[in-house]
Amino acid sequence: MNTPRIRRQFHRAGFFLAIAMNLAGLSAPSSAALTVNVKESGAIGNGVADDTASIQSALNGGHRTVIIPAGTYKISTALKVDSQTTVQADAQAIIRLADKAGNDVGLFVLTNRDFTAGNQDITIEGGIWDGNNEHNARGSKEQIPSSTGVAINFINVRHLTLRNLTVRNPDSYAIRACHLTDFVIENIGFDFSNVRPNQDGVHLNGFCERGVIRNLRALSPYATNDDMVALNADDAPGEFYVMQQGMVNGPIRDITVEHLRADSAFTFVRLLSHRELIENVTVSDVVGGCRFYAINMDRWRFPAGGGNIRNVTLRDFTIRKMPDDFSKQAKSAERPLIHIQSAVKGFRIKNFRRQSDDIQAARSLVLDNGQPNQLRLEGLTAEQVTAAQALSPGVKPIIAPTDKDTSTLQKNEPGEVILPAGSFSLLEINADHSENTHVYKAEADWRPMKDRPLPQVWALRYDGSRSTKVEPRRTDDGFAFEAQAVTNRETFSAFEITWELTQ
User: Rounded to an integer, what distance in angstroms lies between the CA atom of residue 366 and that of residue 230?
Assistant: First the structure.
């Protein structure tokens, strides 16, 4: 008697899906027709020989899987990745920038090849990618064009996956990107034993959309020494800031960020907008200590009154303010854990918890964007209400009738709102009740399964629970489906695709 066998596959929402799996001995067509081991191309991996040419030879041409075994590989110029390339590096493979590799603006540890026409379908898995900042400082402003100090760089890529890797000692950003669509950056460790200014973890600039960033972890004290995740729709010009050379301003939308961990990061999450749009962003499950901000939305170098941030939800933060004993930046203890100077609409922070052993004097929240905000702040103690009212003219309390120990504040006029200490369950600013419907579509090339029953497809919520059952339809090459989600009611983080097979 045949025994039913269940096979589940999960895919992120908003992506074009090219499903490649093995079911009952059947496999879908693969674009990676060639597998190349860098040792077969001449790489030595002893940390002494220059392996740049050998590894680059293995990468050239795309349409391949490149294997990097354990070892230390010294490179003297950036490794360039073509379209339809998968790099599979051993967890103990160290790809390290050589000492004094130069001051060229194109110097990275790893980058895509074609910034102009763009690349697609690039996957980087595993490895330790070492910028060797002790012997490779970024260039100076006077030297521009010069080295950015960035370790991993991707510009104009569709379908990028970075996973299960460590970035070690960049001189500025660990990972930076712009013009990025349909991407996943997950399971990344940051090992910054040599601390430098501007050491962001994942730094995104303009035209990044439909992406997932998750499971980021600091592996060393004081990492990351700037923003662990920066979504900067507006940013510094490259002619003045060396690490911004090649970056552009532009909208950032449809981004999920989840599961961030650090003991003493500089800042966990940065959202920077002056004119350019940031919209449909969810950040969740952020735990640890920060020396400056948990959530930084200040205006930085831009004039007051700007900001274009819509439909953003940040939730489930458990944070402790940490002392800053070495940074040259002034008054870290006075920086609030949450600072909002940008104009926002449909903005929420849910379940922000300040750890009970946090004895730092920094304020929990400062909102001073100069806008006529409609604000609601819930889950406060009576002491918090009194303190917030004393510092925030125009804020009015509403005692929650169902819980005598918690209170709600609201405000419907311009002016600062300051919460000097403690936690809260909800901050809502300029709630957007419009129904903005997103349609997620996906197609799967699965010709070997053509004669088998269609799978069951479920849209999943951000907590992984099933939301909506989706009906797939047959196509000439497999099957397709689509699902709708209404922003501010529910959005989808993934799809679960389930086959029931007989053995």
Answer: 20
